[in-house]
Amino acid sequence: MAEGKSAIMMMMIIIIMAMAMVASAAQGTATFYTPPYVPSSCNGYQNDGVMIAAASDTIWNNKQACNKRYRVRCTGATNAGVPQPCRGGSVVVRVVDYCPKGCQGTIDLSQEAFAKIADPRAGKIKIEYNQ
């Protein structure tokens, strides 16, 4: 009987933790940019791979976002062009660049990162993201 109660308690803890993680995700929009990805505002001519992003003013914080990792998940369309752009799942990217004023999204993902979570034909998607 005690084992059953322990299992139930453990399951409740897992559910509460999962809910807290979902609740802490910020919402915004994502666009994408294409190669070449260097130079970048954070790391100059260093090759940072392709799972990267440029942060808008919302995240940038005077370069404080440099090299921080964010988990990004597509939550829906922002236009009628691709009504269901999301592919499911999420992608983890590292911020290596700045998306200047006029940036069309909260975060500008590399083309490869965007394609993992959404159809690139959408151009811009709604997202949830957290560090």
Automatic annotation (TrEMBL):
<dbReference type="InterPro" id="IPR044206">
    <property type="entry name" value="EGC1/2"/>
</dbReference>
<dbReference type="Pfam" id="PF03330">
    <property type="entry name" value="DPBB_1"/>
</dbReference>
<keyword id="KW-0732">Signal</keyword>
<dbReference type="InterPro" id="IPR009009">
    <property type="entry name" value="RlpA-like_DPBB"/>
</dbReference>
<dbReference type="GO" id="GO:0048046">
    <property type="term" value="C:apoplast"/>
</dbReference>
<protein>
    <recommendedName>
        <fullName>Expansin-like EG45 domain-containing protein</fullName>
    </recommendedName>
</protein>
<feature type="domain" description="Expansin-like EG45">
    <location>
        <begin position="28"/>
        <end position="131"/>
    </location>
</feature>
<dbReference type="InterPro" id="IPR036908">
    <property type="entry name" value="RlpA-like_sf"/>
</dbReference>
<dbReference type="GO" id="GO:0009627">
    <property type="term" value="P:systemic acquired resistance"/>
</dbReference>
<feature type="signal peptide">
    <location>
        <begin position="1"/>
        <end position="25"/>
    </location>
</feature>
<keyword id="KW-0964">Secreted</keyword>
<dbReference type="InterPro" id="IPR007112">
    <property type="entry name" value="Expansin/allergen_DPBB_dom"/>
</dbReference>
